[in-house]
Structures are given as structure tokens and as C-alpha cells.
Amino acid sequence: PAPTTPTLRGAVMGGTVHSLPVRALIVGGGRRGLALARELTEDGNAVRVVTRTEDRHPAIRAVGAEPWPG
Prior knowledge:
Elements: E1 11-13, E2 16-18, E3 23-27, H1 31-42, E4 46-51, H2 57-62, E5 66-69
Parallel strand pairs: 3-4, 4-5
Antiparallel strand pairs: 1-2
């Protein structure tokens, strides 16, 4: 049976599955964090990536996410 409650991947409305945008916070802007941020932003989600290193900010912005000092 089709899901009837919202999930991170979609919600059923009138029998049609729709994507729901999410706001994500990723702790760590390394290789894995940036890959996840890229995937989430490509799907239309808002993403912040926490990093202690200001040098990582350009890479974080390049994948469409917002750097967040932490």
C-alpha cells in the first residue's frame, strides 16, 4: 500500500507522491558531508553545513549549501 504520511522522500496527496523539501544541518564539511549536501541541494532542499574551518566555506557554497561556523 502507498504511504499516507509525509516522509523525507515524499508525501501522498490525492494518490500522487510529491517531494517535500527539508531543511538539513550537516555537521562536518568534509568529503562525505559535501557529497550529502550536494545531493540534498540538488533535490531542492535547504542545507547548512557546520564547519570550524573558514577555508571550507567556498567548497560548501559550491555545492549549494550555506556554511555555518561551529
